[in-house]
Amino acid sequence: MSRRITVPARDVRVTAEADVVVAGGGPAGICAAVAAARTGARTVLLERAPFLGGTATGAMVASFMGFFWRDRRVAGGVGYEVTQRLIEAGGATGFTRYLLAEASENPIEVRTFPFDPEVLKSVLDEMATEAGVDVLLHTQATEAILTDGRVTGVLAQGLFKPEAFGAGVVIDATGNAVIARTAGCRAENAGDDPAGWQPMTMMARLADVDVPRFRALPRERKRRLARQGMATGELPQQLLSLVSSPSGDDAFILMTRVSGFDGSDTRDLAQAEMEGRRQLRGVVPFLRREVPGFERAHVVAVAPWIGVRETWRIIGDSRLEEADVLEGRQSAEAIAQGGGPLDVHHRDGGGLSLIEPAAPFSVPYRCLVPRDVDGLTVAGRCVSATRTAMGAVRHMGTVMAIGHAAGAAGALAARERIRPRDVRVSELRDLLRSQGAVVDSPLSHAG
Asked: What InterPro entries does this protein map onto (predicted)?
């Protein structure tokens, strides 16, 4: 039997008043904050971790996808600048061709951007500071502040006490749509069984790996090794996927598969984190024993938190459909382009589905605008899209482009004192173009 208590009402100090408050400093959130500040908005960024980068740093998913469709770059702006600054800082060497899920039954060639997450932390610090963003780490956004039914700020928990942040516009980049949901926005998955959601992955960084030797293995042998690992129970999925930092002798391994948990529920997430680390205790000995190139490998870091692929998505003024992605449809209100594969990991059987879109697809602005809440936009994997469409939208290159657009739109709305849904999309698109973002299909400019 559960019991309830009444928490006494108390006054919370307003720590800051801003034009734009961004909740969440992952790939979408950091790009939103930098874009908003560069567009002239007083910007506050709230992040629960001691560093920025989210999935790219905290979950150690050390490779950006979604910047390209085949050989055409479909994402620019702040996100692309991150990649170039990583190269300058020695944390990456550039985009490279990669056979995604090589050991699976349906691999697909993509262009990825491997990087060192530790260098990325510093790059993001510098970009936020240079743009004038007020960054508050160790600060978890917990709830929307509503005034006359409109979102006017964010309540957050600091290290010791709750704090309030007033805002002209709030951008929810929490991944779980925390601010949108507490504001009363309808969201999908509310009645679904979390056991059916895409599995999570716990990443690890191994040192002393002979990466060239592993890469030289024929694909068929990698498939046999992956099947062997699944048969013994040491590999949870038919993947031998890794990326390497510029040092060349390390490997970030994506080989765990944690199913049946809700990544937005505290208790479930705790169990998922522990299960991910348990699976790594089987994966690493298998690699050392069976896979050429890993004979001397050892773990130097386990990701601070597990990578979550799917939880909540808002109901927006528009919704991106599976057909929009697969057919490469373009919208007159496009604020970002996507090109990465539709990537859906199966809950059972250890497999995944990978489908390349027929052409770059667009993300309309109104997928970022909650249908029934004002004063708020969203960015990242909680935008309005079907579950399947989100399999292509959630690539980090794409969510960084969406974040850039959300930040620029927030700055425009705050400047003009209008609702985010009333932003003139044609003006936003022109602004994004001037900031180096890709809002039009790159195929429309082909010779």
From this structure: FAD/NAD-bd_sf, HdrA-like
